[in-house]
User: Fold this.
Amino acid sequence: MNTRKLSAGDIIDARCTRCKEVLNHRIVAMVEEKIVRVECNTCGGAHGYYPPPAAKAAKAPKKTAAGSSTKSPATPRSRKDPTEADRDEWAALRPNMETERAAAYAMDGKFRMNSLVNHSVFGIGVVKQIIPPNKMQVLFQDGKKLLRCQ
Assistant:
């Protein structure tokens, strides 16, 4: 395989300090065989040469004196999507709701925890959290919403 030596004026990949990405650069200055200064072909900025980061190799788990690894094998955790968890919570609360007792939502209204709110767009909701000084988190069928209150 024939490898050509780099010289000033050649195009190489380097990390650009202005663009914050690995891009094509023109070599501006070299000291012996070491690249010292480059110019970005994208933004035109001249800066010191920063080589592209090397690909990281996967590390093997460390072994203990007994020969077993120090880390237990990773077991995948089942995580629920937050919106799915909100829908499940809504479905559990829905049968016990007395929707006729829901207070109409108004930004200047005062609400209590676990009280029902009737919003003109989102529908019936349950106040889950009061956030001082003037916000509340309400659980609707579509998920949790942050609303203004008194």
In short: The chain is about 10% helix and 35% strand.
